[in-house]
Design a protein that fits this description.
This protein has 391 residues and is α/β, with parallel strands linked by helices. The chain is built from 17 helices and 13 strands. β6, α9 and β7 form a beta-alpha-beta unit.
Length: 391
């Protein structure tokens, strides 16, 4: 089967969740299918990144809209009540380039990631599948409800309403739809949202495997540190949770790791808090830490960071927002807290009780091994693409 994959970003390096998902899906589907990759990229694609994808793709075409064009299209979308981010990822040249590519490839099915790519393929007669990945509308709504900035809240309210309409349209425009978790599927406001296929993420358990090395940090949190939900979680951990931990444990070392930390994250650095920035191999961060804390208060989808930490046998602490998609058992495979006091109590308990920490880590590790396989998830996606192609 010829699959034309359309992405809003080049899927390498793997520093963002959407890239990670696309990379593993392409990698695995390339074994039985011919993959043709069309990407939009606002940055230069390094040769080593391009070469990382070449073994899995018959051909790669990259559209490079200028920032000026992207910003102009963002403003244009305000005038037409469309999502700002759909404007940012769209350009007439990109759409023309895509149409030429599709005409030449004649794919059996087109597979698009996120509603950001919808304007690029709109009008195509090929069978089409969209991966919502997350419910972007729910993500935006949570950000809107959490901010005190009046101007930002107004902008997010606009984007939330526009994304709800875009997601609804995608349910009608595409032949099939996929999404990462049930909670996100239920947030898509369409009468047929129950037909959206759940395709979870996985974790490479051979790559993210338990490693016994000397522990350097007590607490780890990681992720793309330009992403608003991760920025919020990092600040929440250091500013509200950590002081409560230090009432009991006066010496606690924390590592905040991940690409492109925002200024508000860099400002968290201190003698006890390390802000690493980009890390070549995140496994070292997991292995050097005693426990993993993901105090997510906004955002959507499935947290890959939790899958990786659990695969590496770290005891994990998170919130209901993150665990709603993960579906680990609170108290057995993970610890859940939704306020600074409870999160701090869980951290203290695990740092003081090594046997309990090991039991939680082992149960979490077994949970991920059993439930989160890239191979199983991608097989489900591949069948959805086949169904769309045979409509």
């Amino acid at each position: 089967m010829k699959i034309l994959v359309v992405l809003p970003r080049f899927p390498y390096p793997l520093e963002k969740g959407d890239k990670l998902r696309a990379f593993h899906q392409i990698r695995l589907m390339s074994a039985n299918n011919d993959i043709y990759l069309f990407c939009i990229s606002h940055t230069k694609v390094a040769n080593e990144w391009y070469n990382a994808m070449r073994p899995y793709c018959k051909e790669i075409v990259i559209a490079h809209p200028s920032k000026l064009v992207s910003y102009a299209n963002t403003v244009r979308n305000i005038l037409t009540s469309k999502p700002l981010q759909l404007g940012y990822w769209y350009s007439n040249k990109a759409r023309q380039l895509y149409r030429q590519f599709e005409k030449r490839v004649q794919p059996d099915v087109v597979y698009c990631q996120m509603v950001r790519t919808m304007p690029i393929v709109q009008g195509s007669n090929a069978p089409k599948v969209i991966d919502f990945q997350d419910a972007l509308s729910m993500n935006t709504q949570r950000r809107m409800e959490s901010t005190r900035n009046i101007l930002l809240r107004s902008a997010l309210r606009y984007e939330y309403k526009a994304l709800c309409k875009a997601e609804h349209l995608a349910c009608d425009l595409f032949d099939r739809q996929t999404i990462i978790a049930e909670t996100d599927r239920d947030a898509i406001l369409h009468k047929n949202n129950s037909n959206i296929v759940i395709v979870p993420n996985g974790v490479d358990t051979k790559h993210f495997a338990p490693t016994n090395i000397q522990k350097k940090y007590d607490i780890l949190f990681c992720g793309n540190m330009q992403y608003a939900p991760n920025i919020d979680a990092a600040r929440y951990l250091i500013e509200q949770v950590l002081p409560r931990v230090k009432v009991v444990l006066t010496s606690v070392k924390v590592l905040i790791a991940g690409a492109s930390p925002a200024a508000s994250v860099r400002n968290l650095a201190s003698e006890e808090v390390t802000i690493s920035g980009w890390v070549d191999d995140m496994r070292q961060c997991y292995a050097q830490s005693r426990l993993f804390v993901a105090p997510m208060r906004i955002g959507s989808g499935l947290q890959n960071k939790l899958l990786e930490a659990m695969a590496m046998n770290l005891p994990c602490i998170t919130t209901d927002i993150a665990n709603a998609s993960l579906k680990a058992t609170d108290g057995q495979e993970i610890l859940v807290g939704n306020d600074p006091q409870t999160l701090a109590k869980h951290i203290v308990t695990l740092l003081q009780n090594e046997p309990q920490s090991r039991l939680l880590a082992t149960a979490g590790h077994n949970f991920v091994i059993k439930n989160y396989s890239w191979e199983a998830a991608t097989a489900k996606l591949e069948q959805t693409l086949i169904n769309a192609a045979q409509k």
